[in-house]
């Protein structure tokens, strides 16, 4: 059963990478892959998703919240001020010459 669980985890990881590269939002793919691993490994779905997955997600959000929040604010300021557009135009003109 441990080998099957490991293979299912690798399949779920490959599926996350595949769908991530194709542009599918990872916020949708990650829970589906977690459900797949729970079901194929014989774990209780409520226990696996409710404790393991959500605890990991909560810890990740707690660790990176300030970084994500300040990045979002910085992106909004750059867009609203027009700085992002002017930087992009300058870089594209440098790359074409």
From TrEMBL:
<dbReference type="InterPro" id="IPR003474">
    <property type="entry name" value="Glcn_transporter"/>
</dbReference>
<dbReference type="GO" id="GO:0015128">
    <property type="term" value="F:gluconate transmembrane transporter activity"/>
</dbReference>
<dbReference type="Pfam" id="PF02447">
    <property type="entry name" value="GntP_permease"/>
</dbReference>
<feature type="transmembrane region" description="Helical">
    <location>
        <begin position="57"/>
        <end position="75"/>
    </location>
</feature>
<dbReference type="GO" id="GO:0016020">
    <property type="term" value="C:membrane"/>
</dbReference>
<keyword id="KW-0472">Membrane</keyword>
<feature type="transmembrane region" description="Helical">
    <location>
        <begin position="24"/>
        <end position="45"/>
    </location>
</feature>
<protein>
    <submittedName>
        <fullName>GntP family permease</fullName>
    </submittedName>
</protein>
<keyword id="KW-1133">Transmembrane helix</keyword>
<keyword id="KW-0812">Transmembrane</keyword>
